[in-house]
Amino acid sequence: MPKSHLKQNLLGFLRKQPDADARRASVENDLINAESALGRTLFGDVAPGHQREFFMHKKNVWIWHEDGMTIRYEVRSNGVFKKVNDSGYRKVTGEELAHFRAAASAYLKLVKSRIYE
After folding, report:
1. pLDDT-wise least confident of 19-28, 29-38, 53-62, 102-111
2. Environment class of residue 62 by beta-carbon count within 10 Å: exposed (0-12), middle (13-18) or buried (19+)?
3. H/E/C letters for each residue in the chain?
4. Residue 12 has pLDDT above 80, yes or no
5. Tell me: the pLDDT tens digits for 34-53?
6. Alpha-carbon gap, residue 19 to 26, rounded angstroms
7. Is residue 51 a contact partner of residue 63, using CB atoms and an 8 Å limit?
């Protein structure tokens, strides 16, 4: 079952339960944390005292956070755009786009095989 379907089915089931909003938020947070724990491993070891996160926040939105810098990638019909901290969006091209695509692909394969399989 594709990741998005499994996640939707799980969250849909939780909506029907008592205290559904709190449970859904808790499960969604746990899934993002588990995915991020795997995502941070894609780029090598994290030095002691440093922080790194890489995960798919929601459909077509990816987050990279490392040592106080947050990059938000949005995949749109006309390209991939990124926003660093509070700056404006700019289109990602060339080698940077190739690196983003490779990282996103590796991430999806990793979380599918370790969390959703």
Report:
1. 19-28
2. buried
3. CCHHHHHHHHHHHHHCCCCHHHHHHHHHHHHHHHHHHHHHHHHCCCCCCCCEEEEEEECCEEEEEECCEEEEEEEECCEEEEEECCCCCEECCHHHHHHHHHHHHHHHHHHHHHCCC
4. no
5. 998 899 889 888 888 889 99
6. 11
7. no
What are the residue ranges spanned by the domains of the chain?
A: 3-114
Longest dimension (CA), the chain: 49
Alpha-carbon gap, residue 21 to 16, rounded angstroms? 9
64-92, pLDDT tens digit by residue? 999 899 999 999 999 999 999 999 999 99
Q: How many CB atoms lie within 10 A of CB 38?
A: 17
Tell me if 66 sits within 8 A of 73, measured CB to CB.
Answer: no
Calpha distance 31→6 (Å, rounded)? 11
Q: What single letter denotes the amino acid at residue 11?
A: L
